[in-house]
Amino acid sequence: MIEVTDLTKIYTEAKAVDSVSFTVEDDKVYGLLGHNGAGKSTIMNIMTGYISATSGTVKIDGIDIFEQPEEAKKLIGYLPEQPPVYLDMTPVEYLRFAAELKGIKRSQIKSRIEYALEATGLTPMRGRLIKNLSKGYRQRTGLAQAIIADPKVVILDEPTVGLDPLQIIEIRDLIKELGKNRTVILSSHIMQEISAVCDRLLILANGHLIANDEPANLMRLMYGQNSLSLTAKGTRKAIMEALSGIKEITKTDFLRSEAANTSKLLIECEPEKDIREKIFYKMAEAKLPILEFSGMNMTLEDIFIELTKNNQ
Fold first, then answer.
1. Which parts of the chain have pLDDT scores under 50?
2. I need a surface site. Which of 115, 141, 143, 288 has the fewest CB within 10 A?
C-alpha cells in the first residue's frame, strides 16, 4: 500500500530524516515510535503531502505523493496532534465542510456524514457546538474528518494526547476497528497504546529507521527465542562460576539489581532446551539463593529503550 524509499528531509544543515525506507502493508496498524526529534512528525507530514522532501519518494497505492499529490491525498485521511476543528460549528456542519473540501459528491455527502458520525460514536453530539464538547469528543470529530472520505490510509499523530483513561480506551478501540479494513499509521509516546493496537513497529532514532518488525519478533531478535531472567543472592563472580558447567547456556547479561547483595541477569539458552532444573540445582549447590526466576518477558518500553539507547 505505502512505499517509502530513501526519504530525506534537511532543514538548513540538520537532517530531520535521513534515507529512510520502508513499506506498509494493507489492513494493519503500524506504530511509529521515537524520541522527540527522531523524525516521526516530519515523515507523517511528508506522507500526507503537507511538506516536501529533500529527496526520496513516497507512493500511496502506487501513486507518487510528489508527482500526483491530488490523487494521492484522496487515499489518505489525516488527524494531526491538534484536531483542525472549527469550534463554532457542530460536528455535522464541520463534517459537511470537510466533505466538500475533500471533493465528495453532493449525492454522497449525507451518507458519508452519517457513516463518520456512527463510526466515531459522535451521533449523540451531532447538533452540539464543537466548543461545548469535551476534548475526547473533539478528538472524535477530528477523527471523523479523517475517515469521512473512506480513505485507504489513515494517519494519526498522537491521537489520545490529553485524554482521560476512559476516552483513551474508547479511541484505542476505534483505531483497532479502523485497522480491520484500512491501513492505519499511528504516532504515539504512550507505549501501552502502541502495544494495545499496533501489529507492527517502525522505530526511529536521529532521523534513521532502526527497526521495522512485529513486537514479538523484535524481542526474539534481541534476546533469542529461549531466554530466562534470574535474580539471586550472591556476587556476579560466584553466580558465573555456578553456571559455568551448563553447556546449554549461550549468553549471559548482568542487569542492574535494585536490592543489595543480589545479582540480576538474563540467560540465553540453546533453542528448545529447558535448563531450569539444572540452574536450580547448580545454584543450590553453590548456596546462592534464587529470589526470582522466570521466562524472559520484555515490555514494549524495554524494547524501545534497548534499541534507541545508543542512538541518542
1. none
2. 115
Q: How far is CA 82 from CA 135, 157, 174, in A?
A: 11, 9, 18
Q: What are phi and psi of 277, to 5 degrees?
A: -65, -40
Polymer length in residues for the chain: 312
Q: For residues 61 and 144, what is the distance between their CA atoms, to the nearest angstrom?
A: 22
Rounded (10°) angle between helices 135-147 and 165-178: 10
What one-character-per-residue DSSP string does 246-309 give? -TTEEEEEEE--SSTTEEEEEEEE-TT---HHHHHHHHHHTT--EEEEEE----HHHHHHHHHT
Question: What DSSP assignment string belongs to 166-212?
Answer: HHHHHHHHHHHHHTTSSEEEEE-S-HHHHHHH-SEEEEEETTEEEEE
Those residues with Cβ within 8 angstroms of residue 64's Cβ, 6 or more apart along the chain or in another chain: 57, 58, 72
Angle, CA of 29, 5 and 304, to the nearest 5°: 45
Q: Decide if 40 contacts 187 (C-beta within 8 A).
A: yes
Q: Locate cell 534481541: which residue?
A: 222
C-alpha 90/C-alpha 88 separation (Å) is 7
Name the residue among 174, 177, 150, 155 with its Cα closest to residue 163.
Answer: 174
The grid coordinates of residue 275 equal 535448563
d(CA 194, CA 36): 16
φ, ψ (nearest 5 deg) of residue 227: -130, 150
State the Cα–Cα distance between residues 235 and 9, nearest whole angstrom: 50
As to burial, measured by CB atoms within 10 angstroms (0-12 exposed, 13-18 middle, 19+ buried), residue 63 is middle
Percent of the chain past pLDDT 90, that is, above it, reads 56
> What's the CA gap between 115 and 109, in Å, rounded?
10
- Separation of alpha carbons 233 and 65, rounded Å: 59
pLDDT on residue 273: 81
Model confidence pLDDT, tens digit, residues 59-83: 999 999 999 999 999 999 999 888 8
